[in-house]
Amino acid sequence: MRTEDVLAAIATGLWRWDNASGTVTLDSEAARLLGLPAEPVVLPEVAVRSRFHPVDWNEINGIVNLAVAEGTLAEARLRIMDVDGRVLRTVRSRSKPMENRTADGATDYELIGTIQEIAEPQPGTTAAHTPITGDWRRSREAFLLDAGRALAEARSTAEVLRVAASLSMPGFSPDGLAVFGVAGDRLSIIGHHGHDPGDEGPFSDMPLETDYPAAEVVRTGRAIYLPTPEDYKRRFPAAWPLAQRFDRVSWAFLPLIVAGRTMGAWMAAFKHPASFSPDERSVLTTVARMLAQALQRAVVAESERELTTGLQRSMMPQLGPEIPGMRIAARYVPTGGGLQVGGDWYDMIPLPSGRFALVIGDVQGHDVRAAGLMGQLRIAVRAYASEGHRPDAVLSRASRFLAGLCSSPESDPYGDDGGQDSDFQSPRFATCLYVECDPKTGMLEVARAGHPDPAIRMADGTVLMRPTAGGLPLGIDPDTDYPTTRFTLEPGETMMLCTDGLIETGGHDLDTGWARLRAVLESDAHESAYDEQVPGAGAAAAGPAAPPHLERLADLLVQAVHGPSSHHTTGPLADRREDDIAVVLLCRESADRGAGTALPHPARPVRRTVLTVAQVEPERIAGVRQQIRELLHDWADADQVDSAVLMVSEMVTNVLTHTDGDALLVAEAVGELGARRLRVEVADGSDELPHKRQPGEMSSSGRGVLLMEMLADAWGVDPRGEGKSIWFELHEQSKTDADPEF
Q: Which residues contact residue 710 at a Cβ distance below 8 angstroms, ignoring those fewer than 6 apart?
């Protein structure tokens, strides 16, 4: 009896599907099962495809691709349709994909197999039937979507392994998982789930030549399915004693392949029998592909984090040894994304004179080149400072150094085609703030190159922006001069230096950004943290580390920008990290905190500010008015604040108008809230004393003394050895006391 007759007797047909030529060859039985005349025929692919249910056709494509990848048979259940769209019968196809090489070198395949009619189960029977469509497919698709999302969000190898362990596959969830990695010619376990600690010992390090399923999967790149313990024992007798003690009955070992390279293997073990149907193998294969991609991303991310951490540790300095009477805290937060390195930096430099310098700066850009320039510039500034140069000379030399590093593209000796990235020759600039500090007196000498001014938090919590003279950013003009501003950091005061990332992140400008930071600086939240962490208010922190209250303040400043409450809105500006952040806090210890004992009834600290207005800087008079308003931000009577601002503006303007020297302003508020005394002095180098005049109605000057007499509680002129000092005083009073009701 011929083979064709035997196959026809059991309603089984033969077919050959050539994907390269797009033709299908059917014998007579296969043609009959497809609803065609019962005779051998060769048809185009589109004619045969029209006989299948559309849903089944989509399913068989995935099954065939899986069989090609695994080198196994492609098995599928197909519904045959007539020309009117009715289901004629259901057939089962079993075929073997054969790879063929086309003339142009491409890989295609040819399916050779059988088609057999199967009977549908009748109502009331218990015949097993697993439909191709239905709830299982929908649950499988939902599972793959959830698994893909969870694996895509994993950022480390440990997170990927936790996600893989938590996957609950529809209908056949494994209870034991293991991920194997490859290092050279050795196979090791990266992580596992469902096993006791120490169970991975025999599998933790084995040669790839070992007779073990995971090793064979890595060698061949093909999955291995072991539905029963007998299959395991027959195929891998040497490894069976190691697997037997885990009491599992089915195993699947799948390759982890990324970009055509096998990077490891994934084992899924089951305590309940698993037949590994095509649908189940398809799910396992898809999960293995997603798992491989997730592990690859995690490895890259961990390498980047390691590189970032190394760069940060090498570029960010230690704050150095303890400085008597001074405490320092600092933070650096890189921008999100990429290697998380940028151009912001800070430094603390011991000086030959016994003083120390604080430096904070920001190189243009947030890329690797900015980080490289930052490292070179930081070393240059440290070298110039260590040589003993003054702050202005340090910044002048640093500007010339950066201008030499950032030569223009025209100066590139290689030309446009020299293999050099043009961005690495484009000019870059940097802002910088250099502060030289005398720890004994608190005297600060500040030179500024296009950087935000420092802020001072006084002992009573008042925050003032401290205007300082400055020049162009470094690297723009090598011959720029950088004037020096001197002022004293009083006991109990804290100076904040920061880059613009702390101010402008989140869509803020300089004004709104400072307002956000001012609220944090004026808050007592960090002080309460200090009292909780240090037994007894005023206890000094031991060792070179900053006291807890200063560290807490640094954390609060960063949280104000990057924390959950940093943006009270939704949208693209909410909680973004578009710039690096560097912040340095310098605190001069007060007597009560620095000595380690608190005063029983401490007096309110003096609130004091000192400013110099040069003849060539009349525009700084507006800054003087702003300083007075900030100094008196909590003054009881707003009219008195306006009076003080008016008198200060008049006094400073008179110095610049009627003398040839600069104006030195000293303002201080003394006393308890509600009963304070404000004293403002403006000194100059002229010996000419002011005198009272009677200006005409249209006169534009001559009213300064009249204003003092009308608005000040007391005023006067104190001659000095060289020049004089004009002063006035205001005594704080509430509005009710000033204007009693009748």
A: none
- Closest listed residue to residue 427, CA positions, set 399, 388, 392: 399
Q: Rounded to whole angstroms, how far apart are CA atoms 641 and 634?
A: 10
Amino acid letter for position 379: I
CA separation for the pair 406, 425 (Å, rounded): 6
Put simply, whether the predicted model's pTM sits higher than 0.85 gets the answer: no
Task: Give the mean pLDDT of 604-623.
Answer: 84
Mean pLDDT over the full length of the chain: 79
Any residues with CB less than 8 A from the CB of 441 and at least 6 apart, and which?
A: 488
Q: Residue 393: is it exposed, middle or buried by C-beta count within 10 angstroms (0-12/13-18/19+)? A: middle
d(CA 22, CA 665): 93
Q: How far is it, in rounded angstroms, from Cα 418 to Cα 680?
A: 64
Residue 601 has pLDDT above 60, yes or no: no
- Give the closest residue to 67 by CA, choosing from 7, 32, 128, 19: 19
Nearest to 494 by CA among 549, 415, 541: 549
What's the alpha-carbon Rg for the chain, to the nearest Å? 40
Look up tokens 């060769």; give the residue. Answer: 42
Give CA–CA dist 487/372, Å, rounded: 34
Percent residues over pLDDT 70 in the chain: 78
| 476-495 pLDDT, tens digit each | 888 889 999 988 898 889 99
Residues 6+ positions from 5 with CB-CB distance below 8 Å: none
Q: What phi and psi values does residue 99 have, to the nearest 5 degrees? A: -75, 140
- 525 by Cβ neighbours in 10 Å (0-12 / 13-18 / 19+) ranks as exposed
